[in-house]
């Protein structure tokens, strides 16, 4: 599932990433990444330290 892949990429990066960077690293469409990130955000698994950047929740 793309949510798991997005979370994996964020954890591996070790820094906050933009959706486009996540899409590129995960080899997914940005639209798919946006959908996965929305779900992860609702579940509290990712947070945004600054506008347009995302990282795994601590």
Derived from helix and strand composition plus strand pairing, the structural class reads mainly alpha
N/C terminus separation: 22 Å
Characterize the overall form.
globular
Q: How many DSSP-defined strands? A: 2
The radius of gyration is: 10 Å
Named at the architecture level, the CATH assignment is Orthogonal Bundle
Q: TL;DR of this structure?
A:
The chain is mainly alpha-helical and 58 residues long. It has helices at 2-13, 19-26, 30-42; strands at 46-47, 55-56. It has a single domain, classed as Winged helix-like DNA-binding domain superfamily/Winged helix DNA-binding domain (Arc Repressor Mutant, subunit A).
Could you characterize the architecture of this molecule?
The chain is mainly alpha-helical and 58 residues long. It has a single domain, classed as Arc Repressor Mutant, subunit A. Helices cover 57% and strands 7% of the residues. The chain has 3 helices and 2 strands; from the N terminus they run αααββ. It has a two-stranded antiparallel sheet. Strand 1 and strand 2 form a beta hairpin. The longest helix has 13 residues. The radius of gyration is 10 Å and the shape is globular.
Key features?
58 residues; mainly alpha; Arc Repressor Mutant, subunit A; two-stranded antiparallel ribbon
């Amino acid at each position: 599932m793309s949510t798991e892949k997005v979370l994996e990429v964020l954890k591996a990066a070790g820094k906050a990433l933009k959706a486009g960077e996540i899409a590129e690293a995960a080899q997914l469409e940005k639209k798919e990444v946006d959908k996965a990130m929305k779900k992860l955000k609702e579940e509290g698994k990712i947070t945004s330290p600054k506008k347009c950047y995302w990282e795994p929740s601590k």
